[in-house]
Design goal:
Blueprint (H helix, E strand, L loop, with lengths): L1 H12 L1 H41 L6 H30 L4 H18 L1 H15 L8 E4 L2 E8 L3 E5 L5 E5 L6 E3 L5 E9 L5 H18 L8 E8 L4 E9 L4 H18 L16 H4 L1
Helix pairs in contact: 2-3, 4-5, 6-7
Subcellular location: Cell membrane
Pfam families: MS_channel_1st, MS_channel_2nd, MS_channel_3rd
Membrane topology: Multi-pass membrane protein
Length: 287
């Protein structure tokens, strides 16, 4: 034991070993720095290419461009980091030949055992190249609804409107509802009392919606007052529909409800509310 310790001390303190260790450390640092610089340069080149593509006179889908750009960023990072690790292992004396051969056999074994992982990767490529959805789209997968933050090779990240981030393996995505491809339809139901003048109420609604069409940029088509939608127990329901930009229907409906309420009050059109009638019998009537 003492001989071993003394041999280690002699080896560590020898000038040849110190010089060799120094140059190995220098080479590892150079490999690491070159890898970081390569990744940064590649990312800048991809970002520049994507920006030039967006400014091109030819029309490209910005959603798909952004999604593919992020995927290429991830692929370059994984590839460069993998090569960097191999080069560093080579500098510290690891024989890469048997390592790569063993990695091939191990990869084959993992391919059979990790079928779900392979399924995630293949599904991820199909999602991107079929343009099922892209980064920034509002989608719903099963019970999860939110904005797509990232489409990776294996998983998709979705952020809900309340702030939660859901990480879903691509292989688990069976059905997707995309709310960002086509325009949305805002539906507003307005209730008025039976005593109110329906024709006058419809006229006020048309004037109000036409005014809002000129003010709100998210409305892409003039709102349509359809008329009486339903005769309720204590109210008459009038329906308004309007086409608006994707995922803005709730915002438009809230603003329309606010402005319609103001205009109905200004024109003395009554909005129904619960009413109670109390009947008191006199003593003579009781006798």
């Amino acid at each position: 034991m003492k001989d071993t310790i003394q041999w280690l001390k002699d080896m560590i303190t020898s000038p040849e070993w110190l010089a060799s260790a120094f140059w190995i450390i220098v080479k590892i640092m150079v490999i690491y720095i070159v890898a970081r610089i390569t990744i940064k340069i590649a990312h800048k080149m991809i970002t520049h290419m994507m920006s030039a593509r967006e400014k091109s006179p030819l029309k490209f889908d910005a959603r798909r461009t952004n999604t593919i750009g992020r995927l290429i960023h991830n692929l370059i990072s994984y590839t460069v980091n993998f090569i960097c690790i191999l080069l560093i292992l080579g500098q510290i004396g690891v024989n890469l030949g048997p390592l790569l051969a063993g990695a091939g056999v191990l990869g084959l074994a993992i391919g059979f055992g990790a079928q779900s992982l392979v399924k995630d990767v293949i599904t991820g490529f199909f999602i991107i190249f079929e343009d099922q959805f892209g980064v920034g789209d509002v989608i719903q997968i099963d019970q999860v609804k939110g904005t797509v933050e990232e489409i990776g090779i294996r998983v998709t990240r979705i952020k809900s409107w309340t702030g939660e981030v859901h990480i879903i393996p691509n292989g688990n995505i069976k059905q997707v509802t995309n709310f960002s491809i086509h325009n949305s339809m805002a539906v507003v139901d307005v209730s008025i009392a039976y005593e109110s003048d329906i024709d006058r109420a419809i006229e006020v609604l048309k004037e109000t919606t036409q005014t809002m069409f000129g003010k709100l940029d998210n409305i892409v088509k003039e709102p349509d007052v359809l008329g009486v939608q339903m005769l309720g127990s204590s109210e008459v329901v009038l329906r308004i529909v309007t086409e608006c930009k994707p995922n803005t229907q709730f915002e438009i409906a809230r603003k329309m409800n606010e402005e319609i309420k103001k205009q109905l009050d200004a024109n003395d059109i009554e909005i129904p509310y619960p009413k109670t009638v109390t009947y008191l019998r006199s003593v003579k009537e009781a006798e």
